[in-house]
Each structure stands twice: as structure tokens, then as C-alpha cells.
Amino acid sequence: MDAGTYLLALQRDEAGTAPQTGLGLYRSDDDGQSWSFYASINPSPTDRHTADLVKLGSDVAMVESFDAPSILPDTRLDPGRKVYFQRWRSNGASDFIPDARVAAFTPSIAGVAYHRGELAVDSLGRIWVQAFKRGSTACNPAIDPRCSLCDTPGNGDNYKNDVVVSMSTDGGRTFSREQVLGSTLCRAGGRLISAGSKLLLIWNDYSGNENGTRIVTRFVKRDAADPTGTWSTPQNAFPDEPVDGIYHGAALNAVADGAGVHLVYKDQNKMRLWYRRFEVATGAFGSKVQVDDSAQDWALQPAATLRQGELLILANHLLAPGRYETRMWRLSTGLGPANATSIATEDAFHGYPAVPESLPATARSLPYVYSRAATSDGAADEMVLRVAADPPAAVLSLEEGRAVLPQGRTIAVHVQTTPASVLSGTIQFELTGQPAGVHASFDPPQIETGAATTLTLTAEQGVPPGSSSCAVAMTAATGRVEVPFNLEVVPPSGDGGGCASAAPHPLIGLGLALLAMRRKRRP
Q1: Its pTM surpasses 0.70
Q2: Same domain, 334 and 400
Q3: Is residue 42 part of a domain?
Q4: Is 113 in contact with 81 (CB distance < 8 Å)?
Q5: Could you give the CA distance from residue 353 to residue 497 in angstroms, rounded to a whole number?
Q6: 429, 435 in Cβ contact below 8 A?
Q7: Shared domain check, 136 and 94
Q8: What is the pLDDT tens value at each position of the chain, 523 positions in all?
């Protein structure tokens, strides 16, 4: 796909305007600024499906499977709960032509269904599909107390899951017989991902570490040179962690480079975000690093992407009931609450965030997709927040990018430049966009990258009140960058003058409503 072109697989849980019911593809060709319906994948609004998409050369590979709040056995629907693979072939221009769907997994006996399919392509070009196979018998906590935490009536969480894989050597035309790599006591979730010559599959279930008795977050791996049926035996993913792991197995995001996998996940016990690195060379996960301090929020979910080797992490941080903030981290500048960049705060529920797995070097913005609703169990709008991919050239000490300047007064704005931006060397400053009668000066007027200056704004007494779009323009030998902000001239309040807030808030995103949808799925 061309730079700036994105495909988004989106499930609409209630009937909408045909053909936009159920699972469909939506497309943007302008870097996420606008979106349009592209194609229907599964039109059923009642038996919900989700999809996993992977680039396959110039084509798009997709796996589609059942996933819903309830996975209870259903004699009517279970036979159709297969896992489908479909290849969307580039036509050499700007469009994609879908091949016929191929079933990678098909229920062969009554009481069996597949859900949460994942897709990966190994270093030899073979296509691997993974899914969870729900059995027909539920765990009874009166007999086996390990499943007491997943015994939630009405949703099938206490049904055993098998972890199964299948492989195609002919580009997805046919798939091998399923292979069982492990099993869980309860409903499970996880991720299959390719890194260098390795395939990594990690999972956990809904049992709460089998009621706190053991680590259930496990993984298997294989090398491209291994015989096709060879996988390692399942082993504990985080042996340094006392009986904890990935919340439900699904509250994670992972991206890979040639040497390993960046894993960001929510833990089971405290429901906080953590980062670990899986190294291909050692075949093991490293120690954990805290990402965020949001806790005990079932909706907290990470979204991660790679751009030129830089890991970017975004998440929906809960500030208070019904109030969320989008936060972002760059691995190169450090993780943890103190290193978070606040992008947007809203009095609304935010859930199910997603970003592309990788960005081309030419991309200057990142589409961050999430659902926004009044409550966590109501109808939601799908939103796209476009976030600058490069670090901001400077951070202004303004609350939400707004400077308030009373008539006849002076305010000071701290301008902190960042060494990781596109500018380097000596930077010169100027202000653009200010109305007549507003005067600006920088002290010092030029600095080296990474240093700070102070912008002083003074309004004459007769400047009319109003709002102006201004920008701090920075020029260096390597280019010119503008950091926009909103300047509001207001009547004097009589309290001795106004001042700028000291809380840095870089302007790095704007919201764009995509479409209305309804979701009630838990991670």
C-alpha cells in the first residue's frame, strides 16, 4: 500500500446501513484524515467476527474468526464458527482483489468452535494461522476451584480452550491439519508473531492464574529451519514474576523487529501496563518495565507501533470514572508515568485502541484508532486521533495549547526544545500569526537544540479581544518547524495579570470521527 493508505477492519455489532453491517474494511488514502467503507467481510451483525491483517508483499493477508462477549456452545452457530484465511491481492494500481476465503480451521464435531484467530508469516514466506478451540465441557468450580474466577454465567469463560495452529506453504490456498500446542482451563487470548527466523506464540486465559495457583501465561516458539510440525514445549513466559501474567491473554500488543519482539501488556493482578523484550538470540523474555500507572481498569489496553526502529506505545489511561486520557511513550526516551505525553483528555469512555503494526519512514503522522462512548457498555463512536510520528521540536508551557493574554498585560511562555527532533544545531525563533498590537520577543533569541528559551507576549491596552492561531517558528540549518498554539486576548481580570500554565502540553494530535458502532467486548 502507498504511504498514507490504511485499511481498518471494524466490527459493527448492531445492524447499520447495508452493506456496512458486521465486520467490514474501511480505507483511508489521506493518512487517516478521512475514511470510507471499502468492503464487507462478514455481514452478520449478530454472530460477531474480528480480523487480523498482515502485509504479504504488495498484498494483504487476513484471518477472520468469531469473537464475542459470549462463547457459549450454540448448536445453530457453532458449525459456522470457522477460522477463514483470505488473501487480498494488489491489482498493481491502488486497489485490492480478494481471493476466495479458505477455512484454516473447521469444527468437526458437535460442541466445538474456534475463536480469536491470529496470523503470521515466517521468514520463509509460509503462512501460519493460530486460534483457540473451545471445547464442549465447562469447568465446574465445585469440583475444580482453579476455574472459580472464570465461572461467570452466560458467557462461556469457563470452557476449556486448546491452542491450535495450521500452516500453508502455497500462499494460503490450502492449510495443514491443525496441531494442538497447549490448552487452558478457561477462555484464552494471545498473540502469534514472526521475528527474524522465529515464530513466537504467547497466551493466557481468564482463570486469574488458575485462581492464583500458578503462572498460566505461557509461550512456544519455533525456528524457520525446524520441521514444520516442530514447536518448543510450552514454558512459563515470565518466570521472574510471582504468579502473574497477561490479563485474559488478550490485553497485549506486540511488534517485532529482526532481533526480537516488543511486548506491552496489562498484568492480571494490578491491571497495569508493562513492557518486556523477547530476544530471538536467547529465546526468552527480559525483565519487566512499568509503562503506566493506571490500575484496576478492565478497559486499559496498549497499542504499539515501530517506525525506523523506534517503539511508540499509546494507551487509554483512566483518570476518573468516565474520564480518559490518551497517553504516548517513546522507548528511546523512557517509559513510566513520568515519561508519558498527554495527547487528549475527554469526559468519555475510551476503549479498544489500535495502531498500525509499523509505519514507513516517510510517515509523519500515526492514526490512533479507539472507541469513544458515554459509558463502557453503550453505543460508541469509532475515533481516529492523528498523532505526530516525530518528536515535537519544542514543548510549550501551555495548558492544552492555549495562551491567555489580558489586554495591557504581559505573559511568559517557556519553550523547551527537544534534542530528538528533526532540528539540530543553532535554532532561531520568531512568532507568527499574532494580531496587531501583540508584541513578542524571545530570550535568548537563538539557542542550541535541547536548550530552552522564554517567549514574552505583551498586549497593548487597545488590542481587541479575540482568538488567533499562532505558531512558534524555529529555523535551523536542517530545516524549519512550527509549533502551533491558540492565543486568546481577553479583557483584564483585575487580579494583576495573566500567566501561562507551567504544565507542558505539546500539540500533537487532532480527533476525527470515523463512524458510529456498538461494541460490548471485553479484552
Answers
A1: yes
A2: no
A3: no
A4: yes
A5: 42
A6: no
A7: yes
A8: 566 899 999 988 765 555 688 899 999 999 888 999 999 999 887 789 999 999 999 999 999 999 999 999 999 999 999 999 999 999 988 899 999 999 999 999 999 999 999 999 999 999 999 999 999 999 999 999 999 999 988 899 999 999 999 999 999 999 999 999 999 999 999 999 999 999 999 999 999 999 999 889 999 999 999 999 999 999 999 988 888 899 999 999 999 998 999 999 999 999 999 999 999 999 999 999 999 999 999 999 999 999 989 999 999 999 999 999 999 999 998 999 999 988 888 999 999 999 999 998 888 889 999 999 999 988 888 999 988 888 778 889 988 789 999 999 999 999 999 886 778 899 999 999 999 999 999 999 999 999 999 999 999 999 999 999 999 999 999 889 889 999 999 999 754 444 333 333 332 322 232 332 223 334 5
471 and 339 assigned to the same domain: no
| Domain match, 187 and 274 both | no
Q: Which of 124, 105, 116, 6 is nearest to 55 (CA)?
A: 6
Residue 155 lies inside a defined structural domain of this protein:
yes
> What is the extent of the structural domain holding 177?
47-250
Nearest Cα neighbor of 516 from 9, 53, 11 is: 11
Domain membership of residue 301 (yes or no) is: yes
Query: At 425, is the secondary structure helix, strand, or coil?
Result: coil
Q: How far is CA 255 from CA 303, 357, 472, in A?
A: 10, 6, 35
Q: Are residues 142 and 81 in the same domain?
A: yes
Dihedral (CA of 461, 463, 469, 475) sign:
negative
Q: Cβ–Cβ contacts within 10 Å for residue 100, how many?
A: 8
Q: Are 191 and 201 in contact (CB under 8 A)?
A: yes
Q: What is the CATH number of the domain that holds 448?
A: 2.60.40.10
Which residues is 457 bridged to in the sheet?
Answer: 411, 440
Please identify, among 208, 233, 250, the residue that sits at the C-terminal boundary of a domain: 250
What CATH number is associated with residue 112? 2.120.10.10
- Let me know if 80 is exposed, middle or buried by CB neighbors in 10 A (0-12, 13-18, 19+): middle
Domain boundary among 230, 250, 270: 250
In a domain, 346, yes or no: yes
